[in-house]
Amino acid sequence: MQRAVILLSGGLDSATVAAIAKSEGYELYALTIDYGQRHRIEIEAAKKVAKHLGVAEHVILPVDFRLFGGSSLTDDIEVPKDVPIEQIGQTIPNTYVPARNTVFLSLALAYAESVGAEKIYIGISEVDYSGYPDCRPEFLQAFNALAQLATKAGIEGTPLSIEAPLMFLSKSETILRGLELGVDYSLTFTCYAPLPDGKSCGRCESCLLRQKAFYEAGVPDAAEGH
Description:
- The chain has 226 residues and is of the alpha/beta class.
- The chain has a single domain (3-217), classed as 3-Layer(aba) Sandwich (Rossmann fold).
- It is built from 7 helices and 5 strands.
- The protein has helices at 12-23, 41-53, 100-115, 137-149, 152-155, 171-180, 205-217; strands spanning 3-7, 27-34, 57-62, 119-121, 161-163.
- Strands 3-2-1-4-5 form a 5-stranded parallel beta sheet, sandwiched between helices.
- Helix 1 (12-23) links the parallel strand 1 and strand 2 (27-34).
């Protein structure tokens, strides 16, 4: 069975991407980055999703972005709340973690080469996102070029490819696709500013986008309030 590395955060996008890769016949190798995020509860969600999907291996890799800071997810900066939904994505919010996806994909590239995977799956989308520059097709294209140049596999003519099957899907379309594949969204976690009891705040941009997506998909969110 061919292998694929999944960047698994514990959120609904990465869970859907993992299910897509599994449906395409790949043996899954999940990589979760513990980067010092304030919403560390998502790591526990990633463990549950990985178990649910029956991954062959799940690596949780510590890379402490708190040493750099510069983001409300890794520094003592307030996470934006109650932003009007139509304004989300108009500017780059302070939840942007500098170069996060570039770092994550570099680590996934190393992991993929080490286990002999031929693809890396990442749950980025240019449709429903918060304006992050590393969620665009141009970024994906550039990193695919890098993967060919920077790896033994690429030099030997069997380059790894980075796949983003959600790139042109809205979050509601992503949810419907995931439900077709049996994704259990009650296991996922999205909130950037969890409450002390571990429940979602319901007010950060990530929560608002999730609420909008389930509403537009016409299905209840099984993880609501968790």
